[in-house]
Amino acid sequence: MKLIFDREIECMERGGKQELQLSRLKETAGKVYERVPFYRKAFVEKGIAPEDIHTLEDIKKLPFTVKKDLRDHYPFGLFAVDTKELTRVHASSGTSGKPTVVGYTAKDIENWSAMVARCIAIGGGEPGKFLHNAYGYGLFTGGLGLHFGSERLGMVTVPVSGGNTERQILLIEDFKPEVICGTPSYILTIAEKMEKIGKDPRATSLKYGIFGAEPWSEEMRTALEEKLNIKAMDIYGLSEVMGPGVAMECHEAQDGLHIMDDHFFVEVIDPDTLEPVPEGETGELVFTSLTKEAFPVIRYRTGDIASLRTGKCVCGRTSVRMSRVKGRIDDMLIIRGVNVFPSEIEDCLLKAEDLVPHYQLHVHADGFKENVQLHVEITEACFTRMEQNLDHVELELLKDRIKHAVKSSCLVNLDIHLLPPGSIPRSEGKAVRVVRHKTAQLGV
Ligand code: DLL
């Protein structure tokens, strides 16, 4: 049962891996064609049948799936098994109306747990050590996904979930975990709370952080590593494809996320033309599941922006690696014609002194124009200095510095609003980086 490094799969030479992927792809295509009316119709409309898949390249002939398809078939219409065969469902909260629902058979849960176990091991976890799991438990896949993976790996799992930050700190001190999991923004909140109550976040037993579920930047990694004296690794996943554990960065290289490509086939496409982009170029991630039973997905368009690369990693693994997610297509702001992702702005903020990485972009639609304000908090030290120095010259200079930094790296002018420490709402799960305010449209 113990599983730290599945060398046979993770270090498989590419030809062998591709053969495995092709046979699993054929099986999945056959299954959805036979059992999911939505896919049968989409295949027929494209003039393709499962027997027409001869090579991995043929995947391009298959139809895409998008989030709306899940909503349109709410709750179980895209499942390939009878609901009697399910072991569990999860759902995403869904900002616009109904949630999107995903289902798992017992075999799916077994595969998912094994994949997350691999991910935790890739990120430095070991059997017998404690793992503090601060991802939210419930319909969100983060908490239970990491939980089952951690148990599968043989780690002592602390199912603390998100929230109650003081108790999190107590448990970290008393149980002495080596690994901590949670959204990067919430783990930062825990570290800041430790500082506030006079505890040294660098002095805990923690060695590795497994952070994901929201976009974060290299600068945020440095901030978390320095604050907590740990190695911080990126874990990626989405409920529609499985949940956490679709890809994970290794602690040896911290250089791209190893995709579980024995279970998923990944493509990167240009979201406008829908054509694949060359290796190394950025585009939208698209996943096809290769082993899922209850809810297989064909060419699921994630809306996440990243790039792919092949080649052996220094850790020895040969799986395809994805870059850090740069942002989501729907979180991308187009400010006076320039595409900007919140994570690019985060990079600039973290390079500036006197700021903490708590920020929000407020988008005010004013007729057909969008006005974007950047709200960011200053440090306690800067706030105290500002209170003593009532002419606020220091603040104006700081604003100018940020404005220039954002202008030179993201090519846009933003309205900067500096706020006292603690003013931006903290989240126990995914941080809200973009807030859209709607005002009346012109001519209405
Ligand atoms: O967030 C699953 C997860 C849980 C991943 C815990 C990692 C850790 P959803 O709630 O369905 O599932 O949200 C999926 O979150 O499409 C991305 O936009 C974003 N996301 C997930 N991981 C990362 C990451 C979980 N490492 C959506 N970097 C995805 C950037 C991420 N964005």
UniProtKB/TrEMBL annotation:
Gene Ontology BP terms: phenylacetate catabolic process
Record's keyword terms, sorted: Ligase, Nucleotide-binding
Keyword Cytoplasm: no
Domain AMP-dependent ligase C-terminal: 337-436
Alphabetized GO MF terms: nucleotide binding; phenylacetate-CoA ligase activity
Catalytic activity: 2-phenylacetate + ATP + CoA = phenylacetyl-CoA + AMP + diphosphate
A Pfam family per the record: AMP-binding_C_2
Domain AMP-dependent synthetase/ligase span(s) in chain numbering: 92-288
Keyword field contains Zinc: no
Broadest EC class assigned to this enzyme: ligase
Pathway(s) where this gene product acts: Aromatic compound metabolism; phenylacetate degradation
Record EC number: 6.2.1.30
Superkingdom classification of source: Bacteria
PANTHER family reported in the protein's UniProt record: PHENYLACETATE-COENZYME A LIGASE (PTHR43439)
Assembly: Monomer.
Family: Belongs to the phenylacetyl-CoA ligase family.
Function: Catalyzes the activation of phenylacetic acid (PA) to phenylacetyl-CoA (PA-CoA).
Name of protein: Phenylacetate-coenzyme A ligase
Lineage: Bacteria, Bacillati, Bacillota, Bacilli, Bacillales
